[in-house]
Amino acid sequence: MDTKPSSTTLLALSSFLLLFFLANSQPSHDQHHNYPRKPRPQRRAIPKPCKELVFYFHDIIYNGKNSRNATAAIVGAPAWGNRTILAGQNHFGDVVVFDDPITLDNNLHAPAVGRAQGMYVYDKKEVFTAWLGFSFVFNSTEHVGTLTFAGADPLMNKTRDVSVVGGTGDFFMARGIATLMTDAFEGEVYFRLRVDIKLYECWW
Amino acid sequence: MDTKPSSTTLLALSSFLLLFFLANSQPSHDQHHNYPRKPRPQRRAIPKPCKELVFYFHDIIYNGKNSRNATAAIVGAPAWGNRTILAGQNHFGDVVVFDDPITLDNNLHAPAVGRAQGMYVYDKKEVFTAWLGFSFVFNSTEHVGTLTFAGADPLMNKTRDVSVVGGTGDFFMARGIATLMTDAFEGEVYFRLRVDIKLYECWW
Amino acid sequence: MDTKPSSTTLLALSSFLLLFFLANSQPSHDQHHNYPRKPRPQRRAIPKPCKELVFYFHDIIYNGKNSRNATAAIVGAPAWGNRTILAGQNHFGDVVVFDDPITLDNNLHAPAVGRAQGMYVYDKKEVFTAWLGFSFVFNSTEHVGTLTFAGADPLMNKTRDVSVVGGTGDFFMARGIATLMTDAFEGEVYFRLRVDIKLYECWW
């Protein structure tokens, strides 16, 4: 038997390469040029993240007595509210500004690896729920850079997903999903949040 | 004539494959590694969306008398304003928090398929214009998940585009453009907005 | 010597094409389907932007006396603050709404090519730092469309990066990084910011 490939074999291989390339290029093409996609079956496979991170952050709301420790303050309130007690009707209308320490575990006094900075508004009368806009500002041996988050936080749910809309530094151009969980709270002053960050777009 | 391809033909085909691949890989390469693009001609073809959705949402601003129906409240105002009447100077400086029902048609009393939650600030003295940050929180038989929006809303324009900056659940990692239209309003209390959502990045 | 390529050469070429294609397709594949990436070496090459823009914008905060010129107003403040003087403790808790002219050079009186519209919150007690959400609304011969920004602004730093989270019109679907620099300020009333915008996702 001849060990050399025939010309026909080569043609087949080349054709295979062509088909292979076309088949593989399709998803990329769709992604960028947006030809309509066929609906996928109901049970979708969640893609694997390109980076996963878990942090805790700690929100201590100013209540008129804790100015030394407070990391958050009510700065806007509806006509029926004030700025030292969260408003009635599930805090509807309260605007809170925060600068909370980020820790690697659930200990408030662990060394902070960064700060969670931004705002939330309680946006519903009937139930506790908020809209969040904030950034994680990292400045540790591990990470330097920021991640910016936005989304709805129906905070009575065990877990709730917000969007990671951008990043800088180590998180250059990142996008993803952050799952928030209320890990602990004390009255209406201390809230500890756990956040599981899954990035699905990583540039490096 | 010989039906078998000559070696020369094969070389040509292989070269074609190489060129074809290089030509096709270029857009994808550009997209990710960002070599500068050549300017395109003025009239650009708008890409086809990977998903299109139309909704209405209904904003009833608290005016001191309608607390039962109100879905929005003024929570911040400049020094010259207050929180039960929208400020003068085109409401410049008013911060409004909302939790509005989303419907499939323009009827306020149609079953809500979700809630539009977030905030807007009137940001200009000379003319009505606002900056928006909000999410659609869907919880219907049709959709479960969120879409998050941000952008300027020059609300005296017939249509204005804001960015869809992220999504979760059924709208996992989505991006796109939302076109807002004031569909109806009554005085300075009720506003009905139509929103045409066009997603250009769909993960499923 | 025979000038025609041997079959072996052709096979090698085809194999090369296959390998070449696989190697090149990997980044695109990673980007979209998110297989985990290998960590890159510490010194990363910053990708080349697909578009670069430089602008100045001018923030004149209302101080109770300058209502004719002011482009920004304090609209939220913590319990210890008010809305005509920025609060103590590094303005922690102040919410500022703005509509600032954008110019091509550092001259406040140069023709505006658009408006910077949105809000910032001073979010830290110990040092000046803010969280920003705003859009550039362009309407000039050069550009029509918007860019939307979000992120932390540790404004005592010489430069600070925020995320470009979306765009419309000429900046359809754009993403990138904006570097803010305080170019000049007068007291606590006038701030001139220089912003270097680098887009890394351009759709046209």
UniProtKB/TrEMBL annotation, chains A, B, C:
Transmembrane segments: none annotated. Its main location: secreted. Pfam families: Dirigent. Gene3D superfamilies: Allene oxide cyclase-like. One of its GO terms (cellular component) is apoplast. GO terms for biological process: phenylpropanoid biosynthetic process. Keywords: Apoplast, Secreted, Signal. It is found in: Secreted, Extracellular space, Apoplast. It comes from the Eukaryota. Residues 1-25 form the signal peptide. Dirigent proteins impart stereoselectivity on the phenoxy radical-coupling reaction, yielding optically active lignans from two molecules of coniferyl alcohol in the biosynthesis of lignans, flavonolignans, and alkaloids and thus plays a central role in plant secondary metabolism. Belongs to the plant dirigent protein family. Homodimer. This is Dirigent protein. The lineage of its organism: Eukaryota, Viridiplantae, Streptophyta, Embryophyta, Tracheophyta.
